[in-house]
Amino acid sequence: MAALKLVCALVLCMLVVEPIATTAITCGDVTSKVAGCLSYLQNGGNVPKACCDGIRSLNMMARTTPDRQTVCGCLQTAAKAVKIKGNLAETLPAKCSVNIPYKISTSTNCKK
């Protein structure tokens, strides 16, 4: 009986210590999260709630440096493809009350 308890305790410890598997963020993920921002980034006006919700969600997904670098690069690629107003992109995190550790700009060095 004591051996069974020990085995159960060891299995429980392995489950607790086992790292949670995560998947890498893709540009598709980024695009879907910021889709609600497109009209604002092209035309200005009020920032839609869906935009800020997407920015918050994206920020929560990008916890590691490689994830943040991927998001940064995807945002740059998307910004160039759809011709947004750069000044609106730069102010978006503040307007959504989200702290992003880099400036959203086509000139940002995403490798840092």
TrEMBL record:
Instruction: Report the superkingdom from the record.
Output: Eukaryota
What residue stretch is flagged as signal peptide?
A: 1-24
Concerning Pfam families, the annotation shows: Tryp_alpha_amyl (PF00234)
Task: Give the matching Gene3D superfamilies.
Answer: Plant lipid-transfer and hydrophobic proteins (1.10.110.10)
By its UniProt entry, which CDD domains does this protein fall under? Answer: nsLTP1
Q: InterPro entries given for it?
A: Bifun_inhib/LTP/seed_sf (IPR036312), Bifunc_inhib/LTP/seed_store (IPR016140), Plant_nsLTP (IPR000528)
The name on file for this protein is Non-specific lipid-transfer protein
